[in-house]
UniProtKB/TrEMBL annotation:
This is LysE family translocator. It is a multi-pass membrane protein. One of its GO terms (cellular component) is plasma membrane. It comes from the Bacteria. It is found in: Cell membrane. Pfam families: LysE (PF01810). The chain crosses the membrane at residues 41-61, 73-91, 152-174, 186-204. GO terms for molecular function: amino acid transmembrane transporter activity. The keyword Transmembrane applies. Keywords: Cell membrane, Membrane, Transmembrane, Transmembrane helix. The lineage of its organism: Bacteria, Pseudomonadati, Pseudomonadota, Alphaproteobacteria, Hyphomicrobiales. It comes from Lichenibacterium minor.
Length: 205
């Protein structure tokens, strides 16, 4: 692929990914309540979901994706439900940070976060609009081969990593000020509200 196309794609993706939306709200709220390390499986799933959308479009399956709208609607509402569960847990979370007592519990938590991120990413209408509607106007999809697809995916991961880790670091910086139970409780409630708002945004779009 040409460098111009990749640059245009990267800039458009950075603007889209950097603007507040359900994924950003879920990410920031999670970091505020649990810290950066705990959110890495969630981030990986967000990026994987966007890679799936990108692959569908490059493979010429965007029409099929629109045809099977009911399946994607089911994914979307499953993501909404899980975001609401996370919001409820954040609202009632303890104010003192607690480490997982067993590695098995930590592993289960990581897989749950990964599943939540994948549901949010695949069911996010913002992602669907960007890849299905906007991407073909930025890149000549008809002439993208395997190497071009790999370049697009690599560019996508680099851009999303920079943007999402920037949001995560900003949230982590804010979290350092949460030094007592009262402020931690407020942060938990704010995070829960943001998570519920992200669920509502996904549901109504």
């Amino acid at each position: 692929m040409g460098g111009t196309e990749l640059t245009v794609f990267a800039l458009a993706l950075a603007v889209g990914a950097g603007s507040p939306g359900p994924s950003v709200a879920a990410l920031v709220s999670r970091v505020l309540t649990r810290g950066v390390r705990d959110v890495l499986p969630f981030l990986a799933a967000l990026w994987l979901g966007e890679a799936v959308w990108l692959t569908l479009v490059v493979a010429g399956l965007s029409a099929a994706a629109q045809t099977f709208g009911s399946a994607f609607a089911a994914i979307r509402y499953a993501g909404v439900a899980y975001l609401l569960v996370l919001a409820w847990r954040m609202w009632h979370a303890p104010t003192a940070p607690a480490a997982d007592a067993a590695s098995g519990r930590a592993e289960r938590q990581a897989w749950r976060l990964f599943g939540a991120g994948l549901l949010v990413s695949l069911g996010n209408p913002k992602n669907m609009v960007f890849y299905v509607a906007l991407l073909p106007s930025l890149v000549d999809i008809g002439h993208v081969g395997v190497s071009g697809w790999a370049e697009l995916v690599a560019t996508m991961v680099a851009v999303l990593a920079a943007v999402d880790l920037g949001w995560a670091c900003a949230a982590a910086g804010a979290r350092r000020w949460l030094v007592d139970g009262r402020t931690m409780r407020i942060a938990n409630r704010i995070g829960a509200s943001m998570m519920a708002g992200a669920a509502a945004a996904v549901a109504v779009r």
